[in-house]
Amino acid sequence: MGNSSGFCAINAIEFEVKFNSEVNESSAENPVNYTITGANLTGAAYELQADKKTVKITLTAANKLTANTAYLVEVKDVLNKDLTAMPESFAKAVVFTDSVKPTLGAVSYPSNATAKVSFSEPMAAIATTDVKVYDETGADVTNSTPGATALGLTASTAAGAKDVVLSLNGATANKTYTVKIFGAKDLSDNLAGTKTFTVTKTVVDEVKPTIANIAATSLDTFDVTFSEDIVGDAAGTAAQTPIEGFGMLKIDNGAAIELINGDAGIDSVVYDSTTKKLTVDLTTPLTPGAHVVSVYGYTDGSGNTQTTATSKALNFQADQTAPAFQSLSISQGNLLVTFDDADLQLGTETGGAGNEPILAGTRTLDNVEYAAAAWTTAATLYDPANTGKTNTVAIALPAGLANGKYSVTLAGNVVADQTGNANVAKVITFDYNGSVVSGKPVVVDDDSDATNGIDAGANFTAQAAGTPNEIVLKFNKDVTDATALNVSNYLVDGEVVFEKAVFVGDKRTVKLTLKQDAIDVSTSYPFTIQNVKAASGETMTAVEFNQAFVENVAPTITSAKLLAPNSLEVTFSENMKAASLTDNDDFEVLVDGVKHTTTLTASGTTNVYTIALGTALSATDLAKAVEIKVLDATDAVDATPENKLQGGVNVVVQK
Asked: Domain SbsA Ig-like, which positions (predicted)?
């Protein structure tokens, strides 16, 4: 990940991807940019946190992570805040562990008739029968039936929830009750133990909320501002608490409409608890002019519902505010221009003669001013996250654009809002240096897709039989000795695993030699290539992707035993290539440290081989220490991928 600092599992269904700088919200919350091999992300929620650097991903409880299990986390195509592309994707193998017992927080009172406690993490489902309420005498007074006399948990908490909300409808005001939660456990089956706390019903708020203002913002939208924070559920799911919807609406005293997403006439409702403002987006725009808007049936956090309608005559007019320029950047051959409207459409000035998106101006280089021609290149909506909405237009850089500081005019009507209000022309300035953009070295990949690893072929040689410790990769231009031959610039799973780097044939091709035993399992690992400089001085943009590596663990002799005076049995740590042993030039037998002069003939097929001695060991020999020695010059290798047997090793023969 271009500027990512990592991945952190909070619990079995919540985890965070952390970036080192602020990122674009729509791309950061796009599900297609995240993959966790071994986990099911169906139904997961993605939320960019307030720091704009952290994305919290919440799985459904049914798709929870399994403790003590390895997962491969991959993130790609998340954009920087300025909508420039990050230089590479992120991949990291992690093992999820969870042995921490959940804890219970303090009691709070969302309303007069409810008490709430929250566990420290998402929990397994808690049934109504798992929660008991006792009065001051110790008598069980639990009543889980919803209604006016309910006292306790009236509906099972769903798996994955943290909050336990208790009804106090049946409680006596100012009386203390003891509540016990039995058998609670988190999603990793860590037991919380019996949790005990007290609740008291205290009537503190009986004032109904009111409406401070209703204001029309366009023909199909208006805002309702409340006197206090209200509660509701925009999705309109009746099972959600505390209530569904945000009240009722009538327009011109017509049919009652529930303020819920998708109800008749409602496209969406969005509530901001900070400003206490509800934004209502109607499905069909109203006719321009005066309309009476009436709102009622909304509820505050204490359960006080305002049943009296507030009505206001509003003058609905079409939106006449044009998108305004905010910022620009250059990325991947485009001038990216960002506006203050989140839902742009293209205007008329989108490229071609007579419809230039960039009008003529000046270019300054080395204190000399030159004329800068208009651009006839195409302007397109920039929506890399494929959300269907964008606040940015991409204007392709003209071929052969000269270096310098530009002062040109962004044409009017390059973009417009959905009402048709077009942007106005504006002088913009930016610096352009084509050599900086194109001069960085990159790793050559035959399919130009680093996310799937470097493809073996003319530009990459993977580990192979005979050379299981070597890979060869190529850059697109000459690179420096100091950086390209620095093994710290090549990481596998975040570790320095190569012991040597050398150029092969030119200053673009690098052969890397793995440390022996560096790769213990054949699989794909995050492969990072970084800090390599071109001979011209530009430093590459670091890349990280999943690359297949083959284990390079050297086989060893695990045991040797005497079968007969003229026969030994040798067991290896893994299956061996028979032809590499049966050439009979890999071992010698030592008696009390002295070579036993004889011929040795090996036979076998898997990891167990018999060594026949041409001259049997005598009784005197057998009374002494007998060893089998692997010669330094051995050519014995394992069956695959032909890792060489470690030479210069003596193994005691058991008799």
From this structure: 99-198
